Amino acid sequence: MKYRKLGASDLNVSEISLGSWLTYGVGVERDNAVACINRAFDLGINFIDTANIYGRGAAETVLGEVLADRPRSSYIMATKLFFPMSDTDKGLSRAQILKQIDASLKRLRTDYVDLYQCHRYDTETPIEETMGALSEVVRQGKARYIGFSEWAPAQIEAAFAVPGSEKFVSSQPQYSLLWRRPEDKVIPLSAANGVSQIVWSPLAQGVLSGKYLPGAALPPQSRATSDSMGSFIQSWLNPGVLEAVQKLKPLAAEAGCTLSQFALAWVLREPNVASAIVGASRPEQLAENAAASGLTIDPALFKQAEAIVAGATRSG
C-alpha cells in the first residue's frame, strides 16, 4: 500500500480507503463487516470514511465497536455531517455542528476524528457561522482537520475567504472514469489551496468492475440486487455505459490487472487525489482493490480508456 499526504495536513492516508456508505450497519452482515475492517488493516489501509447519516448512526456504531481494541493512532478516521438525523437535526449551523460531532464521537468511541467533513453545503446557514463552528471543533481537539463534500466552486471559495477560520484540507467528490466533473474547476481550485481529493464511487458503484453485462441478468448477491444498496447504481445500468465498460477489459488485460484495479489506478493517476474510497461486503473484494495502489500503467492505455467511455452517460 502506498500513502499520500492529505492536503496541507500532516495526515498520510492510504491510496485506497475503506468506506461504509450503504454497507456497515446497513447492507452488510456484522460478521462480514468485521472481516472487511480487519482485512483492511492487513492490507495497509489506514483511512476509514463514514458519516453520521449512514444508517442514521449505525455505520459509526459498528466502526466504534470493531475499532475499540485497536490503538487510536493506528488508523485515520473521517466522518461527516449535514443530512437530517431527525426532523429537527440537520444542516451546518453552529448548534448542529457542536451537537453532531459529540454524537459521532460517542458512537465511534473516540475522543477525536482526524477529519470532519461537511457532507453537502448548507444554503440556509451563513458560511461564516459554519466555518466558525468547524474551527471551534478543531480548537477543542475534537477534530484534527476539516473537509467538504460536493461543494460548488463558488461555495468553496466563500469558505476560503472567511478570515481567521481553520482551513479545509480535503474535498470528497464523486470521481471516476465515468464521472469526471471535478476536473473542470474543483480539482484546480483545491490544488491551489492545499486541499486534496478523497474520491467516492471511483468504480461507479461497481459498474467499472465489468461484472454487469449488457442485456444479461444482474449477478446474484451483487450491489445492484440488494434492497438496501441497489437503488443508487441503477442510473449506471444502461446499455451504453455497460457496453463501453466491456470495451475496457482488453486494456486492463494489457496492463496486467483487473478492470477494477485499472479504474482505481486511473483515479490515482491524478496527483490531487489522495485516496479512493472503496466499499466492500467481502474481504476478497478489498484485497483486489487495495492491489491497485502503486500500479504503474502506461498513460496511453488510460487515454484509450477515456476515449472509449467519452460518450457513455448515466440515466436520469
Can you tag this structure with a few keywords?
316 residues; alpha/beta; TIM Barrel; eight-stranded parallel barrel; two-stranded antiparallel ribbon; 34% helix; globular
What does this structure look like?
The chain is α/β, with parallel strands linked by helices. It has 11 helices and 10 strands. It has one domain: TIM Barrel (Alpha-Beta Barrel). The chain has helices at residues 30-42, 58-67, 94-108, 127-139, 153-160, 186-191, 239-246, 249-255, 259-268, 283-290, 299-309; strands at residues 3-5, 12-14, 16-19, 47-49, 76-81, 113-118, 143-148, 168-171, 196-199, 273-278. The strands form 2 sheets. An 8-stranded parallel beta barrel has the order 3-4-5-6-7-8-9-10, surrounded by 5 helices. Strands 1-2 form a two-stranded antiparallel ribbon. Strand 1 and strand 2 (12-14) form a beta hairpin. Helix 2 (58-67) crosses helix 3 (94-108), helix 3 packs parallel to helix 4 and helix 8 packs antiparallel against helix 11. The model has no long low-confidence stretch (mean pLDDT 92).
SSE pattern: EEEHEHEHEHEHEHEHHHEHH
Could you please say which CATH topology applies here?
TIM Barrel
Biggest pleated sheet: 8 strands, parallel, barrel
- Count of alpha/pi helices: 11
Helix percentage? 25-40%
Q: What is the name of the CATH class?
A: Alpha Beta
Taking strands numbered 1, 2, ... along the chain, how are they ordered across the largest sheet?
Answer: 3-4-5-6-7-8-9-10
